[in-house]
Every structure is written in structure tokens, then in C-alpha cells.
């Protein structure tokens, strides 16, 4: 079976869905997701989305992002992110995302390394709400078809021109031919033993880029979140205790009940202090204490975190939460320009799989969903303007030995990351 379409979008998280909504409605769009449609990191996002508090805040927002990223960011991308945050968050509201509001309008919370409160949120399940609303809007458009459990394993190309993707469905090969292909395949958490990410998000877009000599960048920039719920089991996804819990006053303490770090420092710094404290105290975790907040506040502000911890025997209104760092986010990725264009013709990359350079060496909290929105919107506009000059091309069929092909994709990435980051080699899964 082959599929022919104007635009192929690989991934149904924020970057894929928002891109689909920003493409012209007269284009035939095919979207695929590796697992179920909402089995993605977007649906797990808790804290919220950063947005400039008005045009006067753009400069400070840029400065905060550069400082957190250790000035390794692409300043041009950061300025675009901050400037275009307002229109894109407004558009999300128009699409139906009902962020927390009071009489004065949107309510803004704070997270580590932001100088002011500038994060919009929906309870502690912002990503789930964003995913639902975007998906509902996409389903209303009859020019978009979505296929679940459909896995991209390679690019279809002629020379350096992408002409679609090679996929598998129920262990059969399906070639999808497209004028333009968009990779929105997310991060790499699934190749780590301890990660807050969905297990099926294994950096496939990056492996496929490496396999096809598509330019990649900063593959050594990997973020560990300081506060994942500690469990001994290393095969399950680690439940995140959002940074906004510290933003609202949660304190990090060691097993003697002593504070050892300013909780609102950038993520990499807090992670480093926690790792040192674990060694000093000979304990596998530290604690996050929120018992100064009332149960009423906690159940309203963090209902999901409250429930999830309770399931694991921790009543957060009384007991400190055992936490330890876990892989969380990938700042590197497929090298793209300010419109998500990759080094391969007709191939774009949006969201966590891409490297716009916006995060530098360390992502500022809540800038990821925003990056997915801003750059997929810009890229989609560019595709709208250029697609009329493109045509479908069909290449010869390829023979794939499916038994070892998927694992070999994963292995390419694991080998690359081990080589670049010997210090975290033991954190990677083996395949
Ligand atoms: C627990 C958690 C909390 C977070 N909280 C926040 C937050 O509060 N604010 C914030 O800004 N960011 C947050 N992040 C980060 C943010 O959620 C992600 O960076 C962002 O959602 C990535 O969006 P995406 O569209 O690029 O990828 P994803 O949402 O991960 O979607 C990837 C898609 O690609 C598909 N896919 C992957 N490989 C293939 C393949 N081979 N074939 C076909 N399909 C494929 C998947 O099926 C999926 O549909 C959080 C992340 C986690 C894990």
C-alpha cells in the first residue's frame, strides 16, 4: 500500500498538530503517530507555556532564556520566540485552550530562572489540555487524515530531496509520498533508563537524520529535570513533579530535613546540587517539601500531582516527596533555520526533534511547548507560500529487513550519544 499526499506530518504532539492547523486548508495532509495519537510528551506537560507579559517584557524574556541557556543559544531564534509568543498563545486561547484566568484575565505562574511570573497554565495538566484542544480542531478539518500505530523508519529521497517517508504499519511497509514532509517526532527520552518522557519517544527523527546525512546539531545538550518522583524501577516512565511546584514555594531538603539549594535556580544547576547532595548523604534521592501549602491549595493547583503521589503512598500535604533527577528534554536535534527547514530539500523539522538553537545548552522552563508553536507556525506559513511550485515524485521501492531495521535506528542514536556524552553512558538503555 502506498499513500500520496501534499504534506506528510510525522508526529501528533503540539508541533505536528499546530503545524497541521496552520497549513492551508486546500492541502491534503497526512499525519502519523508511532503509538496512539495522544501518546506523546505534549500530553504529559504539566507546568505551562511561557509568554511575554506584553511588548515591554520581550527584552527580559530574551535575557532569561539566554541566561538559562548559558548564552549558547541562537539569539535570533530567541528573539523570535519571545516576540511571537504573544500571538501564538492568543491563538491557542482562540482555538479553545482555557488557561487559568481571574477577573483581570490570564493568571501567570513562575518557574525556575524566569525573572517574573510569565507562564500560562491549565491546572497541572497544561499539555493534556493543549493536546485535546488541538486534536479536536484537527479532527474538524476534512483535509487532514490521521493514522495511529504507524511508524516512520526512513526517508524517501532522490539525491538530497525528500519525497516522503518509509513507514511500517502492522509489520508491513507503507511508502508515503509527499511534496513536503515534516518531522515532529519529539525528543529522545525513550533511550534513557530514567526519563520523564513517554517510553516510545526514542529520537527516531534524529536517528533517521543521522542515517540520511541530514545536518544535526548539539546532540550533547541533554537536560535532566531535577525533580522526578523517585522509584527504584528503572523501566517505567518517571513521574514529573513540575517546576511550578517549586515556583509556588516547594522546598528541596535532604534526608536530615535541611535545605541545600535555591530551588529557583536553572534546572541544570539544581540537578547538579541534588546529585551532590545524594552523594553527601548517601541517599538515592532528596525530598521536595510542600507541606507549608494547604491541602485545599494543593488539590486545586496540583490535582494531578496530588493524586499521583497519593497512589504511591505519599500525601504531599503532609509527607515530603522523594525526588531525583531524570532525563527530561533534548536541546539538540535536527539543525533547522528560522522556519524549520532542514538541510534536506522539502524536509522540515518542528518541535523537540529540531534544533532552532532557542534553548542553548539548557532549556528555560516552559519554553518547549512555545517553541513547538512559534516555529511550526512560521514553517507552515513558508510551506503554504512555496508548495504550489512542488510536485509529487515517486522513487523505486526499497527492500527493508524489518526485523533489524527499527533496532538499528535506535542503536545509531544510542551509539552517537554514548560517544558524545561518555559521562552519562550508563544512563542509556541497551538494545
Ligand atoms: C513530563 C513532562 C512535562 C513537561 N512539561 C512541560 C511544560 O510544562 N512546558 C513545556 O513547555 N514543556 C514541557 N515539557 C516538554 C514538552 O512537553 C515537549 O518538549 C513537547 O511537548 C514536544 O512536543 P513535540 O510535538 O515536539 O513532540 P511530542 O509531543 O513528544 O510528539 C512526538 C510525536 O511523534 C510521534 N513519533 C515519534 N517517532 C515516530 C515515528 N518513528 N513514526 C511516527 N511517529 C513518531 C509520536 O507518536 C508523537 O505523536 C514536558 C515534557 C515532559 C516529558
UniProtKB/TrEMBL annotation:
Biological or metabolic pathway of the protein: Cofactor biosynthesis; NAD(+) biosynthesis; iminoaspartate from L-aspartate (oxidase route): step 1/1
EC class: oxidoreductase
Cofactor: FAD
Residue ranges of domain FAD-dependent oxidoreductase 2 FAD-binding in the record: 6-369
Record carries keyword Repressor: no
Record NCBIfam families: PRK06175.1
The name this protein goes by in its record: L-aspartate oxidase
Organism: Clostridium thailandense
